[in-house]
Structure formats: structure tokens, C-alpha cells
Write a structure and sequence with these properties.
alpha+beta, six-stranded mixed beta sheet, about 20% helix, about 35% strand, Alpha-Beta Plaits, Elongation Factor Tu (Ef-tu), domain 3, about 375 residues, Gyrase A, domain 2, 8 helices, seven-stranded antiparallel beta sheet
Length: about 375
């Protein structure tokens, strides 16, 4: 298959802003995206943990589900229970195949009694759209792919609320984690959501594409005195891995189930029928052969995805996610290990024919963030 050239890729509404800031641009999820700025990944990571960082996540996909059958449809295509959502609340969930494999992980927004927004991974927009469209026929719903009509900014870090509050017409202090409001950001209409992928307090702002750049620039200006930095994909990955958050294509995919991936809390097996339910019930009853586990290296090393993981003397599979943690100062990662593996067990990562020792550890790797649930 021919590799995509930069000319094949889409650009977000913030592409010119990234170029003006000197970002290193790379292909990601079909877009030209900033992996880091001249400050570097480590400083960007530190800014999010200690003050605030701002990410362009406009590559994410958004599907609108409307109609009398909206709740029943969303319940059928996701493993969690959207009937538990109040208006203005958000839920983390997954799409599954009939065999229990994960099509994608997503956020479900309850926009109204008969109106939901599904936020999916940018790399999976076309696949996810085909998946939900094929399942909609038996439901009284209308689906709209809004992905090209929305710009999305993530403002993350302990200073995020102080930076954002002067620019919005909603009371951020009263907004709980995984809740949202429809309002205005620096005069632009949008959705202000207390969500994020970093383990820090913060917000995600869904905006019209033609207003996204002005809001980005305004936030940078207001946030300067608070230590706000633009942040790229590199530190987004190290931040989310420190929290043990799954990344589609690494930790989860169509060959893994949510039960194996430590996402059983997203699977409501006793609700009305949903895609993958029977397979997941059978898997739970039979018992799991493997589970996604975290590990830390005891010696210096960078456990890159794909490196062999050695457990109980055997190569048991590849590193799924791995990095040198800026906060913890050691190599951390995830891998699927035999179900009997427990925190404290010895393991190792094979790096250039040398086995670097480590231990299985509980997730998250880091729990000192500013996020208050």
C-alpha cells in the first residue's frame, strides 16, 4: 500500500497557527499535525502538569445522532449505558464487533432527549461511520457526520479554569468532570466540556472551524501569564500513558476486547442487547487468558511499541504503548500479559538483544494530577 504523502493529508483549522509557532508537523490520523513545538516535548509535558498546555485535537471525529430512536440506537452500538446520562453529561464507551473486538473507544454526549454526539478517534472516522451507518437501519434515527464542521481545542492543566473562565459565558467552577455546557468562547458559539486525555483538570472546546483560530490565539494571549504553552502529539501521548489511558491502535484494537483491556467498567452486560454482548458474556464466563498490564523498567531504557515483552521466561507479545516518562524519569509501558500476572511480578523488555528488567505495576503510573472527579 502506498504511504500517504503530505499532499494527501487534511489540515485542521489551526494548521497555519502551528506553522507560525514553529511546530514540527507530521502525518497523523490522515492530518498534518504538530508533534512538538520548539520548546520540546519534555517542557510541554511539564507545562500541562504544572500550569497549562493547549492541544489541537480537531482531527477527532464527531457524529450526531438524532430522532426518537436515538437513545436505543446509541445503547445498541455502545457497551456502556447511555440511559444513565443526564442532559449535559458525557460518557466514555466503546464500539464493539459481534465477536467482542473493539472497533473504537469514544465519548457519548447527551445533547438532548433525542440527540447525542459521538466523538471518535480521528484515524477511525471512516471506519466508525461505516460501522454505525450499517447498524442504523432498524432504528428511527438520523445520523450526521459533523467531523469537518467542528474545530476542537483541548486546554489542559491546573491553570486551565483560570485561563478559560474570563472568555466564556458559563460558570466553569460548577461544571463537574464529564459534564458540558453549550455557550460561547470569546464570542464564538460552541460546546465547553470538562473532559480531557491528560489526567489534569481541563476542558475541550468544540467550535465552528472559522472561529477556532481566533479562540486559539486569544487563549494563548490570555494564558501567557499563567504559563500556558502550545502542546503537540508527543506530550499528549506521554501524558495519557502516565495515566494509563488506552490509545486505539496500540493498547486496544479489533483483536482485543474491553474485558482484556481493563475496560470492563465500560461494559454493561445486563442492559438491553448491544453489539458484542453475547461474545463478551461468553468471554467473562470462560475467564480471560490475558490482560493489559502496566510495567516500569528498573534500568534506563525506552520501551518502544513493538519490542518483545518477556514474562516468566517467555516472549508473550509486544509492548503496546511505551515511553520514557517525563514525570517519573523511567521507562513505562503497557503489554498484554497472562491473566495470572500481578503487580510486583518481574518481567523484562528486549531492547537490542538485551533484556532490560522491570516489574508489573498497577495503573495509573502517575496519580498526582490536578483532575478532581
Amino acid at each position: 500500500m502506498r504511504a500517504a504523502s503530505m499532499s494527501d493529508l487534511k489540515r485542521t483549522p489551526l494548521y497555519d497557527a502551528h506553522v507560525a509557532l514553529g511546530a514540527k508537523i507530521v502525518p497523523f490520523a490522515g492530518f498534518e499535525m504538530p508533534v512538538q513545538y520548539p520548546t520540546g516535548i519534555t517542557r510541554e509535558h511539564g507545562a500541562v502538569r504544572g500550569a497549562a498546555g493547549m492541544f489541537d485535537v480537531s482531527h477527532m471525529g464527531e457524529f450526531l445522532v438524532e430522532g426518537p430512536g436515538a437513545l436505543a440506537f446509541v445503547s445498541y452500538v455502545t457497551t456502556n449505558d447511555p440511559a444513565q446520562l443526564a442532559l449535559g453529561q458525557v460518557q466514555y464507551s466503546v464500539f464493539c464487533l459481534p465477536d467482542g473486538g473493539i472497533v473504537d473507544d469514544l465519548l457519548v454526549y447527551r445533547m438532548g432527549e433525542e440527540r447525542f454526539r459521538l466523538v471518535v478517534n480521528g484515524a477511525n472516522i471512516d471506519k466508525d461511520w461505516a460501522h454505525v451507518s450499517a447498524l442504523a437501519g432498524d432504528f428511527d434515527v438520523e445520523l450526521t457526520n459533523e467531523s469537518d464542521e467542528i474545530g476542537l481545542i483541548a486546554l489542559q492543566g491546573p491553570a486551565a479554569e483560570a485561563i478559560l473562565q474570563p472568555l466564556v459565558d458559563v460558570d466553569l467552577s460548577s461544571m463537574g468532570f464529564y459534564w458540558f455546557s453549550e455557550g460561547h468562547v470569546d464570542g464564538a458559539p460552541g460546546v465547553i466540556s470538562r473532559t480531557g486525555y491528560t489526567g489534569e483538570a481541563g476542558f475541550e472546546l468544540y467550535l465552528p472551524p472559522d472561529a477556532t483560530r481566533s479562540v486559539w490565539d486569544r487563549l494563548l494571549a490570555v494564558g501567557r501569564e499563567h504559563g500556558l504553552m502550545p502542546a503537540g502529539l508527543g506530550c499528549r501521548d506521554s501524558l495519557r500513558l502516565e495515566m494509563g489511558y488506552a490509545l486505539y491502535g496500540n493498547d486496544i484494537d479489533e483483536q482485543t476486547s474491553p474485558l482484556e483491556a481493563g475496560l470492563a467498567w465500560l461494559v454493561k452486560l445486563d442492559k438491553d442487547p448491544f453489539v458484542g454482548q453475547e461474545a463478551l458474556i461468553a468471554q467473562k464466563d470462560a475467564g480471560l487468558d490475558r490482560r493489559l498490564r502496566g510495567f516500569k523498567l528498573a534500568e534506563r531504557g525506552f520501551p518502544r511499541p513493538g519490542y518483545d515483552v518477556i514474562y516468566a521466561g517467555d516472549a508473550v507479545g509486544p509492548v503496546r504503548s511505551g515511553t520514557l516518562s517525563p514525570t517519573l524519569g523511567c521507562g513505562i509501558g503497557t503489554a498484554y500479559l497472562p491473566a495470572a500476572a500481578r503487580p510486583g511480578d518481574d518481567m523484562s523488555i528486549r531492547i537490542r538483544n538485551r533484556d532490560i528488567p522491570g516489574q508489573v505495576v498497577p495503573l495509573p503510573f502517575y496519580d498526582g494530577g490536578s483532575l478532581k472527579r
